[in-house]
UniProtKB/TrEMBL annotation:
Cellular component aspect of the GO annotation: plasma membrane
Bilayer disposition of the protein: Multi-pass membrane protein
Similarity-based family: Belongs to the chromate ion transporter (CHR) (TC 2.A.51) family.
InterPro entries membership: CHR_Transporter, Chromate_transpt
Bilayer-spanning residue ranges: 7-29, 71-96, 117-135, 141-172
Alphabetized GO MF terms: chromate transmembrane transporter activity
Source taxonomy: Bacteria, Bacillati, Bacillota, Tissierellia, Tissierellales
Organism name: Keratinibaculum paraultunense
UniProt keyword annotations, A-Z: Cell membrane, Membrane, Transmembrane, Transmembrane helix
Location, primary (coarse class): membrane
Subcellular location field: Cell membrane
The name this protein goes by in its record: Chromate transporter
Amino acid sequence: MNNILKLFLSFFKIGAFTFGGGYAMLPLIKKEIIEVHGWFTVKEFIDILAIVEMTPGPVAVNSATFVGYKVAGVLGSIAATVGVVLPSVIIILIIAHFLSKFRKSPYVDYAFRGIRPVVLGLVTAAALTVFRDAIIDIKGLIIGIVIFCLVSFKNLHPIIAIVAAGIVGMIIY
């Protein structure tokens, strides 16, 4: 099977079986591109996350586009991006068709209440994975903690935080 089809199928699977947005998809993206297909190393995956975070747009779409391009060029980026988005489009069309029937169903409410903790777990797993793989020494840990505090408690704009961390990284490393 060629890489374009592999990209489409891998990202279709990621889009179809992950709830909670791009951050919840990161563990599955990591598994697919590193463990299953060997397209990237852990270090390259962390670099991808840095690029994906700095570019506007959804994390999942940016990840798929970037991975697809690195693996198989423009056609690869199209295949991966369509693959990750298509399941959501299909699901939304199905939900829109049936929503009026089931809008007030307690079972639908129960299902979404059950999904919420799973999303939290997936996002937490992604954060821990990135933390474990990105922090390589005490200097990186300090940079991460300082930026986290500035963004979380002082409302520092994320773009300023990214630029500042990049400058600090260039100076320190």
